[in-house]
Amino acid sequence: MTETAVCVGTFTAVKTLWEVRIHKINEELQKEKEFRQRLLLVWEERAALAKLKEKVIHEDGRAILRIEEEEWKTLPSCLLKLIYLQEWQLHRTSLQKIPQFIGRFHNLVVLDLSRNSIESVPKEIGQLTNLQELLLSYNRIKSVPKEISNCVSLERLELAVNRSICDLPPQV
Protein backbone atom coordinates (compact mmCIF):
# COMPACT_ATOMS: atom_id res chain seq x y z
CA MET A 1 0.00 0.00 0.00
CA THR A 2 2.92 2.28 0.55
CA GLU A 3 3.84 2.11 -3.11
CA THR A 4 0.35 3.22 -4.16
CA ALA A 5 0.47 6.20 -1.83
CA VAL A 6 3.80 7.25 -3.31
CA CYS A 7 2.38 7.05 -6.83
CA VAL A 8 -0.71 9.05 -5.89
CA GLY A 9 1.41 11.61 -4.05
CA THR A 10 3.78 11.90 -7.00
CA PHE A 11 0.84 12.19 -9.41
CA THR A 12 -0.75 14.93 -7.28
CA ALA A 13 2.53 16.84 -7.10
CA VAL A 14 3.00 16.66 -10.90
CA LYS A 15 -0.63 17.68 -11.47
CA THR A 16 -0.25 20.67 -9.13
CA LEU A 17 2.99 21.69 -10.86
CA TRP A 18 1.30 21.60 -14.28
CA GLU A 19 -1.74 23.52 -12.99
CA VAL A 20 0.55 26.24 -11.65
CA ARG A 21 2.44 26.40 -14.96
CA ILE A 22 -0.80 26.54 -16.97
CA HIS A 23 -2.12 29.28 -14.69
CA LYS A 24 1.10 31.29 -15.16
CA ILE A 25 0.97 30.87 -18.95
CA ASN A 26 -2.69 31.97 -19.00
CA GLU A 27 -1.81 35.06 -16.93
CA GLU A 28 1.04 35.90 -19.32
CA LEU A 29 -1.24 35.44 -22.33
CA GLN A 30 -3.84 37.72 -20.72
CA LYS A 31 -1.20 40.38 -20.04
CA GLU A 32 0.03 40.13 -23.62
CA LYS A 33 -3.53 40.43 -24.91
CA GLU A 34 -4.14 43.54 -22.77
CA PHE A 35 -0.85 45.03 -23.96
CA ARG A 36 -1.82 44.44 -27.60
CA GLN A 37 -5.22 46.05 -26.99
CA ARG A 38 -3.59 49.12 -25.41
CA LEU A 39 -1.12 49.31 -28.28
CA LEU A 40 -3.96 49.08 -30.79
CA LEU A 41 -5.81 51.89 -29.00
CA VAL A 42 -2.69 54.06 -29.12
CA TRP A 43 -2.32 53.50 -32.86
CA GLU A 44 -6.02 54.14 -33.48
CA GLU A 45 -5.78 57.36 -31.47
CA ARG A 46 -2.74 58.47 -33.46
CA ALA A 47 -4.56 57.71 -36.72
CA ALA A 48 -7.63 59.63 -35.53
CA LEU A 49 -5.46 62.59 -34.47
CA ALA A 50 -3.71 62.62 -37.85
CA LYS A 51 -7.09 62.57 -39.57
CA LEU A 52 -8.33 65.43 -37.38
CA LYS A 53 -5.20 67.49 -38.01
CA GLU A 54 -5.87 67.21 -41.75
CA LYS A 55 -9.24 68.86 -41.12
CA VAL A 56 -7.79 71.92 -39.38
CA ILE A 57 -7.62 75.03 -41.51
CA HIS A 58 -6.48 78.54 -40.72
CA GLU A 59 -8.81 81.26 -41.89
CA ASP A 60 -8.97 84.91 -40.82
CA GLY A 61 -6.42 84.22 -38.11
CA ARG A 62 -8.54 81.43 -36.61
CA ALA A 63 -7.78 77.73 -36.24
CA ILE A 64 -10.89 75.94 -37.51
CA LEU A 65 -11.79 72.26 -37.39
CA ARG A 66 -13.98 71.72 -40.45
CA ILE A 67 -15.56 68.34 -41.10
CA GLU A 68 -18.48 67.90 -43.46
CA GLU A 69 -20.36 64.86 -44.71
CA GLU A 70 -18.13 62.32 -43.00
CA GLU A 71 -19.06 59.67 -40.45
CA TRP A 72 -18.01 60.85 -36.97
CA LYS A 73 -20.64 59.55 -34.53
CA THR A 74 -18.36 60.40 -31.61
CA LEU A 75 -15.31 62.58 -31.29
CA PRO A 76 -12.13 60.91 -30.01
CA SER A 77 -10.45 62.13 -26.83
CA CYS A 78 -7.28 62.81 -28.84
CA LEU A 79 -9.10 65.94 -30.01
CA LEU A 80 -7.89 67.43 -26.73
CA LYS A 81 -4.46 67.69 -28.35
CA LEU A 82 -5.99 70.40 -30.56
CA ILE A 83 -7.06 72.53 -27.60
CA TYR A 84 -6.00 75.68 -29.45
CA LEU A 85 -8.95 75.43 -31.86
CA GLN A 86 -11.14 78.52 -32.01
CA GLU A 87 -13.90 77.15 -34.16
CA TRP A 88 -15.57 73.82 -34.79
CA GLN A 89 -17.61 73.35 -37.95
CA LEU A 90 -18.94 69.81 -38.00
CA HIS A 91 -21.86 69.42 -40.41
CA ARG A 92 -23.63 66.24 -41.51
CA THR A 93 -21.24 63.99 -39.61
CA SER A 94 -23.92 61.95 -37.79
CA LEU A 95 -22.41 63.19 -34.53
CA GLN A 96 -24.59 61.85 -31.73
CA LYS A 97 -23.02 63.43 -28.71
CA ILE A 98 -21.10 66.55 -27.79
CA PRO A 99 -18.15 65.26 -25.74
CA GLN A 100 -18.03 66.25 -22.08
CA PHE A 101 -14.47 67.45 -22.58
CA ILE A 102 -15.88 70.33 -24.67
CA GLY A 103 -15.46 72.54 -21.61
CA ARG A 104 -11.68 72.36 -21.93
CA PHE A 105 -11.72 74.23 -25.26
CA HIS A 106 -11.58 77.69 -23.69
CA ASN A 107 -10.50 79.31 -26.97
CA LEU A 108 -13.68 78.29 -28.81
CA VAL A 109 -15.49 81.26 -30.29
CA VAL A 110 -17.77 79.39 -32.71
CA LEU A 111 -19.25 75.95 -32.15
CA ASP A 112 -21.23 74.93 -35.22
CA LEU A 113 -22.61 71.41 -34.88
CA SER A 114 -25.69 71.88 -37.02
CA ARG A 115 -27.21 69.06 -39.09
CA ASN A 116 -26.15 66.15 -36.91
CA SER A 117 -27.90 63.71 -34.58
CA ILE A 118 -27.10 65.33 -31.24
CA GLU A 119 -29.68 64.67 -28.53
CA SER A 120 -28.31 66.62 -25.59
CA VAL A 121 -26.00 69.46 -24.69
CA PRO A 122 -23.61 68.70 -21.82
CA LYS A 123 -23.51 71.09 -18.88
CA GLU A 124 -19.75 71.54 -19.54
CA ILE A 125 -20.77 73.87 -22.37
CA GLY A 126 -21.06 76.51 -19.65
CA GLN A 127 -17.28 76.55 -19.28
CA LEU A 128 -16.90 78.15 -22.73
CA THR A 129 -16.88 81.76 -21.60
CA ASN A 130 -15.42 83.01 -24.91
CA LEU A 131 -18.07 81.26 -27.03
CA GLN A 132 -19.88 83.78 -29.23
CA GLU A 133 -21.87 81.46 -31.53
CA LEU A 134 -23.50 78.14 -30.69
CA LEU A 135 -25.21 76.66 -33.73
CA LEU A 136 -27.16 73.47 -33.06
CA SER A 137 -29.93 73.60 -35.66
CA TYR A 138 -31.22 70.42 -37.29
CA ASN A 139 -30.37 68.03 -34.47
CA ARG A 140 -32.46 66.02 -32.00
CA ILE A 141 -31.87 68.14 -28.94
CA LYS A 142 -34.45 67.71 -26.19
CA SER A 143 -33.16 70.16 -23.61
CA VAL A 144 -30.55 72.82 -23.01
CA PRO A 145 -28.73 72.92 -19.66
CA LYS A 146 -29.01 76.00 -17.47
CA GLU A 147 -25.18 76.21 -17.50
CA ILE A 148 -25.41 77.70 -20.98
CA SER A 149 -26.07 81.00 -19.21
CA ASN A 150 -22.40 80.91 -18.10
CA CYS A 151 -21.38 81.51 -21.72
CA VAL A 152 -21.16 85.24 -21.08
CA SER A 153 -19.88 86.09 -24.57
CA LEU A 154 -22.67 84.19 -26.37
CA GLU A 155 -24.27 86.42 -28.98
CA ARG A 156 -25.94 83.84 -31.22
CA LEU A 157 -27.75 80.65 -30.26
CA GLU A 158 -29.46 78.62 -32.98
CA LEU A 159 -31.69 75.70 -32.08
CA ALA A 160 -34.03 75.66 -35.09
CA VAL A 161 -35.57 72.36 -36.21
CA ASN A 162 -34.93 70.48 -32.99
CA ARG A 163 -38.47 69.10 -32.85
CA SER A 164 -38.17 67.49 -29.43
CA ILE A 165 -37.04 70.60 -27.59
CA CYS A 166 -39.66 71.71 -25.10
CA ASP A 167 -38.35 74.88 -23.54
CA LEU A 168 -35.24 76.79 -22.64
CA PRO A 169 -33.94 77.45 -19.14
CA PRO A 170 -35.14 80.78 -17.71
CA GLN A 171 -31.51 81.97 -17.54
CA VAL A 172 -31.42 81.98 -21.35
TrEMBL record:
Q: Where in the cell is it found?
A: Cytoplasm, Myofibril, Sarcomere, M line
Q: What PROSITE patterns is this protein classified in?
A: LRR
Primary location group = cytoplasm
Keywords assigned by UniProt, alphabetized = Cytoplasm, Leucine-rich repeat, Muscle protein, Repeat
Q: Where is the Disease resistance R13L4/SHOC-2-like LRR domain?
A: 78-162
Its Gene Ontology cellular component terms are: M band
Pfam families registered for this protein in UniProt: LRR_14
Sum up the protein's function in the record's words: Component of the sarcomeric M-band which plays a role in myocyte response to biomechanical stress. May regulate expression of other M-band proteins via an SRF-dependent pathway. Important for normal contractile function in heart.
Per its record, how is this protein called by name?
A: Leucine-rich repeat-containing protein 39
Please give the organism: Leptosomus discolor
